[in-house]
Amino acid sequence: MNYLRNFTFLKRVFCNHNQKKKLAKPETIEEYYASRPFLPAADAPKNAAHFNIFRIGAPDIEDISVPFGRKDYYKICIITGNSRIHYADRTFEVQKRGLLFANPQIPYNWEPLSSNQQGFSCIFNEAFFDHFGRIKDYPVFKSGGFPVYELTAAELSVIKAIFEQIMSEKEGQFEFRDNAIRTLILQLIHSAIKMRPADNTAPEKVNAAGRITTLFLELLERQFPLENASSEIQLRSASDFATQMAVHVNHLNKSVKEITNKTTSEIIMQRLLQEAKIMLKHTSWPISDIAYALGFEGPTHFSGFIKRQLQLSPSQYRNA
């Protein structure tokens, strides 16, 4: 069985090299500015901490359609007007007022559905928050979290005021301007979490179980995205993760269950399903390549997994 799979893997590597079937690399901040010549060139970062904020709908600034994909930066947007946000394997439709939190791990794009879109957009990289807390640990930026909020008129007023204050700080010359901006970004995040507490977020526990669970989740996320069809995840089972972490698998399972109220296997399978749905919808990779890349024994096992989860075959889901 192993020799057959090895042969199939080598065949895929050869074919994928020739066909160059790759996911687009995450858009960098430099590419963001290059595709928007109406933004000041001086705003482009030089491999350092970076932050910027823009008005959506300003006369001299018009946003452009962005292909579905990952971006190498964080983005927080507030939008008024009807729009649709494709985020990983989910689609959210904003009816009137929307707030979006996007991170480098998750592919997304924003599709305006009405004219006169207005609001704010701020972008920043992780380096901007160095020594100022772990921005990626907040629920709004976690895989499986809730990244899109439909706001009431009152909530819009609160959030818009924070964006206005960020804009004011950005245009100022205050010595500790960046710290003030970071504080306001955290205020945005906290305000959103208060409005819609995340049901799937467990209380943070600074103990052995919490540390083990955090490391497990980080190792799981590091395996994604898979940039080409010859890639293959290395950690797929609870035992794989336990070995990598040098802990007993029973200890890992107990810790994860205590913190998340889910089994280790449930979390792994949920993450594999999310990545499978992204690949099926947004790549042209053959289903067999997706199966092997995600660590399944073959297309049959992968197809059975998708059918159990979605009540559709991989082909049916791709074409739906």
Automatic annotation (TrEMBL):
Q: Does the keyword Protease apply?
A: no
- Give UniProt keywords alphabetically: DNA-binding, Transcription, Transcription regulation
- Report the superkingdom from the record: Bacteria
Give the source lineage, highest ranks first.
Bacteria, Pseudomonadati, Bacteroidota, Chitinophagia, Chitinophagales
InterPro entries from the xrefs? Homeodomain-like_sf, HTH_AraC
The keyword Aminoacyl-tRNA synthetase is assigned to this record:
no
Describe the location of the HTH araC/xylS-type domain by residue ranges.
210-320
Q: What is this protein called?
A: AraC-like DNA-binding protein
From the UniProt annotation, give the residues forming the signal peptide. none
Q: Which SUPFAM superfamilies match?
A: Homeodomain-like
- SMART domains noted in UniProt: HTH_ARAC (SM00342)
What species was this sequence derived from? Chitinophaga ginsengisoli
Q: Which GO terms describe its molecular function?
A: DNA-binding transcription factor activity; sequence-specific DNA binding
